[in-house]
Amino acid sequence: MSPAIELHGLRFSYPDSGNADQAQFGDQALLQIESLTAQASEIMVLIGDNGCGKTTLLKLLAGLLIPDGGSVGVHNGPALLVHQRPYLFAESVYANVAWPLRIRRLPRHDVRQRTLAALEQVGLEQLARRWAPSLSGGEKQRAAIARALVLQPQVLLLDEPTSNIDAASIAAVERVLRWQAECGRSVIMSTHNLPSAYRLADRIVPMKEGRLRPVAVNILRGWTLDPGDEHIGRFQVSGGPQIFCPAARGQYTTAVVRMDDIILSAEATVTSAQNRLQGDVRAVELTAGELARVEIDCGCRLVSTVTHRSVDQLRLRTGSRLWVTFKASAVELY
Amino acid sequence: MNLASLIEALRLLVVWDRELAAITFNSLHFAIASTLIAALIGTPIGVLFAFREFPAKRSVVAATHTLMGLPTVVVGLLVFSLLSRSGPLGGLGLMFTPTAVIIGQAVLALPIVVSLVYGGLARLDPELAETLQTLGATRLQRSVKIVREGRIAVVSAILTAFGRVVGEVGTAMMLGGNIRWYTRTITTAIALETQKGAFALSVALGIVLMTVAFGVNFGLNYLIRFRPGNRTI
After folding, report:
1. Is the pLDDT of residue B163 over 50?
2. B56 — contact with chain A (CB < 8 Å)?
């Protein structure tokens, strides 16, 4: 399948940073990305501090900013951006959502049908007649998403869709985005809300100072098993092993383990850590600096970051068999 | 002025004297026509100023703002020099016609409309323009939507311009010539009648003009206080 978005050698700097927003990039005021692709049916989540370039990247993908160099390719129609604090027109919610269709002169019947369908998808059908500026933050966010969805974009871009909104709206937004991905659309969003990012992301893309960074966590999908009376919980990785985790009531679908919390050893050593899995090295990637990323298949795919020295000492290479150890408390549930 | 002329003024108002009506009609006609022209030309320029970058934008905006204070007689002089028999447009024979007054007043109103529309629209959320762009609106659709979103600012600008031209005397006098039944407006009539010592018509016209001016201001206040945007929480 060809990627929905392809980006190569992208460079961008704001022309004249008199703006405080943009000054945060420092003197060079630059976004620089070697390459990034997003597939259909994929939810990609950009994470990073304020001013790291997430919003700028989204605006470049949406075609709202023109890059200084490199290429941004969006296949199958334009990518639509939903802003962090979306602007809703001073009219009814229905009129807001219908507007993109009306300006395209679609027949009344189609406009009505698609508008109502989009409102239903975000759970705002009850509020269709409300004055849009009077909505709450979460409702505004959902209305703005519906206004983008009526156009059935193949790529949906969202800037912090789950920031500063109520829990019910977060759940509604997450449901909509997941559904969009299931329908074959690609979703690219930025967020500060890590739980939301971990629950949604097929891929996490950390950013720092206008550059992409390697991912630092393992994200495992699955479900929690009832801990009963035990003080320790268990998480069933889908299609993989059970791992120990902090005891937790309720439904969790995602377990997150930081890559540098995973210890590799040649033999099964006895430690206080509860999780001990045997696996095969699938790849060893020596990155710039002191660290290497080792990918291990132990029923599920886990990546550990270790020093180059450890790679030598353990004689790590593709195919090596080794033990993977991490504490139950190193597992975070979302 | 004495009591007799005040009573006479009230009588003129009550019976709605034919000359009073004609003068009032002229004033409203010139002011509405010139404001409309200024609105049609000035609103798109205001939108352009608010949402487009162009060289020397700051200076152009500042200049427009300064032109809001253009003295009416200077506009009169300017248009006079264009329209008078020896001027470049003298052949059109527009001098001392309603058209001349409307042109002069439109020149007066234009910087007001541009400046106030720009000021109002520039305060709109900067994300509006990007939202319209990402939703795939054409340039025209975007402009129309921006004016709709900033309609309070646009209507206020137009009302302010109307208030200015309906009460001005300089251009109406210089370009219209205060010709009875033809180019005589409330303001030029008051100036003339008062000098003649005929206070009654002046007072009656003054009351009409005040009513119009207060009406416009009341409308402006109403708009600003009860604008729909304020319904947000």
Report:
1. yes
2. no
CA A54 to CA A43: how far, in whole Å?
A: 15
Query: Tokens 């074959």 — which residue?
Result: A184
Domain limits at A133? 5-212
What's the pLDDT at B198? Answer: 85
**Structural domain span for residue B100:** 3-231
- Written as six digits, the tokens of A184 are 């074959």
Count: domains in chain A:
2
Question: Mind telling me how many Å the CA of A152 is from chain B's nearest CA?
Answer: 11
A237 neighbors A193 (Cβ within 8 angstroms): no
CB B57: neighbour CB atoms within 10 A? 12
Structural tokens at position A188: 């690219």
Which pLDDT does position B226 carry in this prediction?
60
d(CA B217, CA B163): 8
B148 and A87: CB-CB below 8 Å?
no
Helix locations, chain B, DSSP H: 3-15, 18-51, 57-67, 72-83, 98-122, 127-134, 139-149, 151-166, 170-171, 186-196, 199-225
Return the minimum-mean-pLDDT range out of A287-296, B12-21, B28-37, B74-83. Answer: A287-296
Instruction: Please count the structural domains in chain B.
Output: 1
Coil vs helix vs strand at A117:
helix
Query: What distance in Å separates residue B51's CA from the closest CA in chain A?
Result: 14
Specify the 3-state DSSP secondary structure of A288: coil
The pLDDT value given to residue A23: 46
Q: Which residues of A125-140 are buried (b: 16+ CB within 10 A; e: fewer)?
A: bebbeebbbebeebbb
Backbone phi, then psi, for B216, in 5-degree steps? -65, -45
Minimum Cα–Cα distance from B228: chain A residue: A90
Q: How far apart are CA B230 and CA A26, in angstroms?
A: 38
Residue B93: partners with Cβ closer than 8 Å, 6 or more residues away: none
The CATH code of the domain that includes A197 is 3.40.50.300
CA distance A214 to chain B (A): 30
Contacts of B148 in chain A (CB under 8 A): 89-90
Q: Are A119 and A149 in contact (CB under 8 A)?
A: no
Residue B100: phi, psi to the nearest 5? -60, -45
Which residues in B lie closer than 8 A to residue A100 (C-beta atoms)? 135-137
Chain B residue with Cα closest to A98 = B135
Residue B30 predicted with pLDDT over 70: yes
Backbone angles phi, psi at A89, to 5 degrees: -70, 150
CA distance A104 to A100: 7
> pLDDT for B65-115, tens place per residue?
999 999 999 999 999 999 998 989 988 999 999 999 999 999 999 999 999
Low-confidence ranges of chain A (pLDDT < 50): 17-20, 22-27
Residue B65's CATH number: 1.10.3720.10
Residue of B nearest to A153 (CA): B135
